[in-house]
Write a structure and sequence with these properties.
Blueprint lengths: L1 H15 L11 E9 L4 H12 L5 E7 L9 E7 L16
Length: about 100
């Protein structure tokens, strides 16, 4: 169940991110998952590894009795930091 959920979540949120250029998995620096039991933590970890591969941002896994939208079982908060864009026209390599 979770691998397809992670793919949809990551694809939707990366596509919706503001600013020029894509958000890529390697830009993730923090990933918080809030889970309504009974989703096993090891299943979440396996799913995250399947989607992110060797990328290992700081992560917190928290079990909660329910989420604000009661039909949801998982809530994910992610923080990504994109490297500075380089102004190729300036020729000096200065970040804008």
């Amino acid at each position: 169940m979770l691998p397809s959920f992670w793919r949809r979540w990551f694809g939707l949120h990366c596509a919706a991110a503001a600013g020029p250029g894509p958000i890529r998995p390697e830009y993730l620096v923090k990933l918080d998952s809030f889970l309504v039991a009974p989703i096993p933590g090891d299943e979440v970890k396996r799913s995250r590894a399947e989607i992110l591969g060797a990328i290992r941002p700081a992560a917190t896994l928290i079990y909660v009795p329910r989420l604000a939208e009661e039909r949801f079982l998982v809530e994910i908060q992610a923080i990504a930091m994109r490297p500075p864009l380089v102004n190729k026209d300036a020729g000096s390599g200065d970040a804008r």
